[in-house]
Amino acid sequence: MSTNVKISIQYLLFAILFIGISFFNAYFFWWRIDNGTEEFFIIVFSVMICWIGIGYLSTMVSGKIVFKNLKEVGFISPFTLVLSGFLYEKKGLQIAKKFKTTFSSFAFPILIFFIFLFYQMVHFVEKNDLAHYRIEKQAIIEEISYYKGSKRACVVFDFDKKRLEK
Predict the structure, then answer these.
(1) Which pLDDT band holds residue 163 (cuts at 50, 70, 90)?
(2) How far, in Å, CA of 146 to CA of 39, rounded?
(3) Alpha helices in 31-163, H assignment, sequence order
(4) In 29, 49, 57, 95, which residue has its Cα 20 to 30 A from 142's Cα atom?
(5) Phi, psi of 62 (to 5 degrees)
(6) Radius of gyration of the chain (CA)
(7) What is the DSSP letter of 154?
(8) What's the pTM value of the predicted model, to 2 decimals?
(9) Which residues fall within 8 angstroms of residue 70, CB to CB, at 6 or more apart?
(10) How far is the C-alpha of 38 from the C-alpha of 50, rounded, in Å?
């Protein structure tokens, strides 16, 4: 197996690992999200993890476009590129600019694509679950009260023979 293929496999494994973890995290916490809770931060954190995976993917694609041969640069993490100015020091300003432009023009559309893909996946699951596993139950709202000086409400209701307060 050539060095180019080994380096490409490394990039793909890191990208799949980070993007997969972010999708699992976001999907797991999507159903638990409540306004003003820490689950929303976990969704944002999942997007950041996805961005790291896209960074590895974009580094691989940009390396193949700019250098035509990944062996010339080897395996570089996106953090090395950003924090240490690796390409500027080793290859010069013009190549670093070309790499940065290629990286950006590939990475941002891919991030938007993955966010759209996640939204479509969640929408499909919601639609599929409602169509096939719909279970209708009755919820009785007993009380709605507002905290003093706040727009947030406290709702007490009975659902499935349990008293819940949210």
Answers:
(1) confident
(2) 23
(3) 38-67, 78-84, 86-91, 93-133
(4) 29
(5) -65, -40
(6) 23
(7) E
(8) 0.69
(9) 3, 4, 7, 8, 60, 63, 64
(10) 19
